[in-house]
Write a structure and sequence with these properties.
The chain is mainly alpha-helical and about 200 residues long. About 65% of the residues lie in helices and about 10% in strands. InterPro entries: Ribosomal_bL17, Ribosomal_bL17_CS, Ribosomal_bL17_sf.
């Protein structure tokens, strides 16, 4: 049974309420739609949808579970063989309640509860959802494209390091060239001084 609801129960006691809902479910599965009070329709909906879920399972255990609620074998047979295949693709919402106004005698709000047996038509994806899906897939592709961009600065850095290294090598070469020139100049000066000493 579904979760108990707050407020006064239907009928005189809990057993009476169970039998009343079982009879309503039997009538619903037999005739596909019934007219009853709005309160009874709202109380019947969770029970009927649970029984349809059992019927969609279709095994012997599910059939015995349904038989504990509905005692009419012809109604159970119709539920398992006719109704369950029609709602096999539907994932819930097997019943529909439509308010029909008020009863003439006691002004009770009335409603029609019926089975939703139409084939399921999935809604087409809107342009916004498809654009959102494309936007969601785009960031996943962006990091792959951004990785080469991240590697390019490394190449420029290596090029800069190469140019710096060649600059230092040139500077070292210039430094060694200056040192050789200064050494040559000192050797020439020493030679000139030695010639001056020889002339004396």
């Amino acid at each position: 049974m579904p979760q108990p609801t707050k407020g006064p129960r239907l009928g005189g006691g809990p057993a009476h309420e169970r039998l009343l809902l079982a009879n309503l479910a039997t009538a619903l599965f037999t005739h596909k739609r019934i007219t009853t009070t709005e309160t009874k329709a709202k109380r019947l909906r969770p029970l009927a949808e649970r029984l349809i879920t059992f019927a969609k399972r279709g095994d012997l255990h599910a059939r015995r579970r349904v038989m504990t609620v509905i005692r009419d074998k012809s109604a159970v047979h119709e539920l398992f063989t006719e109704i369950a295949p029609l709602v096999a693709e539907r994932e819930g919402g097997y019943t529909r309640i439509t308010k029909t106004g008020y009863r003439k005698g006691d002004n009770a709000p009335m409603a029609v509860i019926e089975l939703v047996l139409e084939p399921v038509n999935p809604k087409p994806k809107s342009a916004k959802k498809s654009a959102a899906a494309a936007a969601a897939s785009a960031p996943a592709a962006e990091p792959e494209a951004s990785e080469p961009e991240a590697s390019e600065p490394e190449e420029t850095n290596t090029e800069a390091m190469d140019t710096e290294a060649t600059g230092t090598e040139q500077a070292d070469a210039e430094g060694t060239g200056d040192a050789q020139e200064s050494a040559d100049e000192t050797s020439e000066a020493e030679g000139a001084a030695a010639e001056g000493d020889d002339t004396k």
